[in-house]
Amino acid sequence: MHTRFQSSLFARIFATTAAVISVLFAIMYLLAVPFIQNTVAEIEKNAGRTILKNVYDMVEQTHQDLENFRQSIIMERKAQLYHIIEVVEARVRILEEQVLTGKLSKEQAISTLLEELRHIKYGRDDYVWAANYSSVLISHPDPQLNNADFSKMQDLHGNLIVPPMVAGARQNGEGFHSYWWRRLGEEQAIEKLTYYKHVPALDLVIGTGVYLDDVEAAVRLKKDVAIKELRQRLRTTHLAKSGYVYIFDGQQNMVIHPNPNIEGKDFSKQLNPSSQTPIGPLLMAVADKREGFRYLWDRPSDPGQYIYDKISWVRAFKEFDWYVCTSVYVDELDESACILRDRVLAVFAATLLLSVLLTFLFARKLTDPLRQLSDTAKKVEDGDFDARCNLDRGDEIGVVATAFNGMVSRLQNNIRHLDAKVVERTAELQILNARLEELSTTDALTGIANRRRFDEVLAIEWSRAERLGQSLALAMLDVDYFKKYNDHYGHQAGDECLRRIAGVFAGKVCRTGDLVARYGGEEFVCIAPVTDGGSAFNLAQKVRKKIQALALPHEMSEFGCVTISIGVAAMIPGKEDTPEILMKAADAALYCAKEQGRNRVVLA
Predict the structure, then answer these.
(1) Pick from 181, 183, 180, 149: which is nearest to 166 by CA?
(2) Which end of the chain has fewer CB atoms < 10 Å from its terminal CB, N or C?
(3) pTM of the entire structure?
(4) Please, are residues 404 and 393 in contact by the beta-carbon 8 Å criterion?
């Protein structure tokens, strides 16, 4: 039975594979000559386009390297400006200390600082300036600009100079601003990078800047070096036999060319011999087009005879205003196609014979391990779970055999330990259900109990207080002017504010046994079992003071920081009473607290 199975499988695999390979090779052979004749030239063209892309990528990388170089220098300049302002800040702190100790008045400190700033110079006549909140330069080394109103002063591009820095300093504390201005004693406007910083203690903004002309000079020098390196690489880049790559700019000046005599020359008057029109605009017109530009040109071996068909592909690199071009003779593309055609035919014949031989060996090698797998599978099917396939191979068949043995072993183990697995999975499910129940009663934002949990605990504590005749207290808390807080500081700051309040309310003030919950929005509630009105009032006052002690800034509040109002109610439930009575009493007390001016506790 095994012999018949092996023979049948071997015959099917070998016959089918050999037949498919033979048909495929026959089709490839019949189509090879016309296919290669018609398409290999296109392959060569694609090679030209690929070379063009590679060179374009090199140009793009050169541009990126230059940009990275520029940014690294600018970062160094920023660090220098930052350190200079740090020195000035140290002096500001000394003056602030003298103001606090009464040695100087605030006006004297400002006057002293401004006088000192006017005498600070470094680098190439660089300086430190100061402006007030009205964008008036109250300290500047140039007498013409000292105390000048810059609130509407613009640079040569029409951009405001000082107001954006004042606004940025007051909003963010510090920052960088770029604009065009002139050096001291010079008239030429240069791009300038300025670092500014807010000095709130003296109600002013200070800053210092550096001109970026030296940065651009360094970048230009590095660009010249990069062009030199790119020139060396392009002179060793070839397409087909004599094809090459060259680069010219938007003014039709040759930037890079294999012929050094052409580099740097203006070829705008070079004509296309066929049309007698300038060839530069024709090349620029086909930039980034797949078909390229075909024209007649001469050969180095036959100069002056413009009878040879040539093709160029062009890509425009706007950042440098460059045009990257590849150029090759069309007959060289066809010559490569013919050589490749003959080689492909020879390879087809040799590969066909080798493929048939390999198919024979493959089919014979494949059937033996498959037969062993089949025998083992049959034993397992008959109930012999101790059967194993002893194939020690490093290929996919070995992986299948190992996996099959593993599956059989796991099947044995699962049968033996199924009950234990069921118990284990059930316990895990119970843990997950408990966790899910916990999540359903927790407020996602603050981490304390939510409205659902509050309702459940209130009903439980109400019943217990009624049964034992004990007092039950309820406090309702509301954040004062919270909508204005959200509108002014943003919802993320509002969420953080609620989390801070919940942390104080639940973790630092309330007692064990009390329940703190988020009732909704900016409202919180606290259930205090076995607590009379006076104790609840004292507890609420403690909460209110703790929240005020956080000193969370609130510019839109009359108190200057985040505060809360609390309504407190307490009662011993009677048989005819309901929890809603206690809720309404606490809510009414909260309303009274709001009416009486907020930031207070009212006992119902």
Answers:
(1) 149
(2) N
(3) 0.47
(4) no
